[in-house]
Amino acid sequence: MADELDNAADGADAPGEPAGESPAEESVQDGAADELEDAADEIADSESAGPLSEAEAIAASVAAERPVRKQAEAKGKATPKQRQAVAEEKEKRTGPIEFVRQSIEELKKVNWPSLDQWRQYFLVVLVFVLAVIAYVSLIDLGFGALILQLFGGGAS
Question: Which residue from 21, 30, 111, 125 could staple onto 25, CB 3.0 to 4.6 Å apart?
């Protein structure tokens, strides 16, 4: 008896049989079968000479294998407006005092670098900045010299 209830809850048709398809899947398949029949009828109606040619039969079978778009199900109620939805989900704002408390708590969780790490980071940044300054200065001098050569730098 318990097995039968489990199978019934799983959607199986009978004990020991696999679960059947859901009603939505069955309606989609029924819709596909109806479309196949409609397509075959249309082709047959357009041909007054008789049976379908091989190309038409292939076209009908390809049309039958196309995926079928699912129909949207009615929700049963209107969708709430965006303003109403936002108003319902609105949370209480954090005040300035609570914000400072939370910020202090988060800063306590930070893994701060040691003094040796600070020095190492400072030197790396300093060397990189000096290298960029030297690179930009050389580019500036080069373009300046090129402009003077092209447009002349002396008084006539």
Answer: 21
Q: Provide the 3-class DSSP secondary structure of residue 12.
A: strand
Would you give the distance in Å from CA 72 to the centre of its chain? 21
Distance in angstroms (rounded) separating the CA atoms of residues 23 and 71: 13
Distance CA 128, CA 149 (A): 32
* Cα–Cα distance, 19 to 14 (Å, whole number): 9
Beta bridge partners of 129: none
| Cβ–Cβ under 8 Å, residues 20 and 12 | yes
Q: Which two tokens stand for residue 15?
A: 């004990």
Q: What does the pLDDT look like over 111-144, one tens digit per residue?
A: 999 999 999 999 999 999 999 999 999 999 999 9
Q: 3-class DSSP state for residue 154? A: coil
Model's pTM, two decimal places?
A: 0.34
Domain residue spans of the chain: 2-73, 96-151
Map residue 19 onto helix, strand or coil.
strand
Cα Rg for the chain, rounded, in angstroms?
38
First to last CA, the chain: 112
